[in-house]
């Protein structure tokens, strides 16, 4: 299915699950510059609601374009997805960078979001608060493994560090890379730079303190991105619950599927 943004960019999207359900679930993938890898997540909730997946602009199955690569533009694209499917209000689930995008959308359009599920994000503090520890944890988990040849295999090796279960880490990372699309490095660089500049401001903390939308934060206890970074968000939000899954890394639905589904289902059922 194709969604056309107001500036004419074609976005790939897919809808599954229960047709016509109240407050359907829209998924926001990570990156920036990657693509939707939420097939397993969609399958977890298709028996109770409509689930919508999409590839962000210039990424995955969406049209290649020259941007613009800004959070404001991506928030507008997400709203184009909402309008395309005729939704007055949605539940949002975002993972990693997608959690940041979903939060940004919710802050911009709180009346259009019934529930925000914030998965494996990095909070609202400065990127400098956690990035050095992340790089150190990444190096430690990879334990000096030599990068293989080929971009896909190099990325698979890096993604394998996101899993706490080291015996199955490469297998799970390879599944994330199937299908494989070209990474949009221009998108990644621009949005990463924007985050370093814009995140951690008093204005952002104040906006989160005023957010009257229920939020579920889901963390893997063994994510190599320090979970303490998320404290900044949890402390600011007035209506927040937090679930920390033990023995779990950055992709909690893969390593703790039952606990992840239970936590998210609880949030969706509770509603506003």
UniProtKB/TrEMBL annotation:
GO terms for biological process: proteolysis. SUPFAM superfamilies: alpha/beta-Hydrolases (SSF53474). The lineage of its organism: Bacteria, Bacillati, Actinomycetota, Actinomycetes, Kitasatosporales. It comes from the Bacteria. Belongs to the peptidase S33 family. Transmembrane segments: none annotated. The keyword Hydrolase applies. InterPro entries: AB_hydrolase_1, AB_hydrolase_fold, AB_hydrolase_sf, Peptidase_S33. This is Alpha/beta hydrolase. It comes from Streptomyces griseorubiginosus. One of its GO terms (molecular function) is aminopeptidase activity. Residues 24-252 form the AB hydrolase-1 domain. PANTHER family: HYDROLASE, PUTATIVE (AFU_ORTHOLOGUE AFUA_2G14860)-RELATED, MONOACYLGLYCEROL LIPASE. Keywords: Hydrolase. GO terms for cellular component: membrane.
């Amino acid at each position: 299915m194709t969604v056309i943004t107001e500036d004419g960019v074609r976005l790939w999207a897919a809808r599954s699950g229960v047709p016509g359900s109240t407050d359907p679930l829209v998924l926001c993938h990570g990156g920036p510059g990657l693509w939707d890898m939420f097939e397993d997540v969609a399958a977890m909730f298709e028996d109770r609601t409509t689930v919508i997946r999409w590839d962000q602009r210039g990424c995955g199955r969406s049209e290649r374009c020259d941007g613009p690569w800004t959070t404001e533009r991506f928030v507008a694209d997400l709203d184009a997805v909402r309008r395309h499917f005729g939704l007055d209000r949605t539940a949002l689930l975002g993972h990693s960078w997608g959690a940041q995008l979903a939060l940004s959308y919710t802050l911009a359009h709180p009346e259009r979001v019934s529930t925000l599920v914030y998965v494996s994000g990095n909070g609202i503090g400065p990127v400098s608060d956690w990035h050095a520890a992340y790089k150190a944890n990444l190096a430690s988990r990879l334990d000096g493994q030599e990068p293989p040849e080929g971009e896909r295999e190099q990325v698979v090796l890096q993604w394998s560090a996101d899993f706490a279960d080291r015996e199955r880490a490469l297998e799970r990372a390879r599944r994330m890379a199937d299908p494989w699309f070209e990474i949009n490095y221009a998108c990644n660089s621009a949005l990463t730079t924007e985050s370093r500049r814009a995140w951690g401001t008093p204005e952002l903390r104040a906006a989160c303190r005023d957010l009257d939308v229920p939020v579920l934060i889901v963390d893997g206890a063994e994510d190599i991105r320090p979970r303490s970074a998320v404290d900044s968000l949890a402390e600011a939000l007035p209506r927040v619950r937090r679930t920390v899954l033990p023995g779990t890394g950055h992709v909690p639905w893969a390593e703790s599927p039952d606990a992840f589904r239970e936590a998210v289902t609880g949030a969706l059922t509770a509603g506003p």
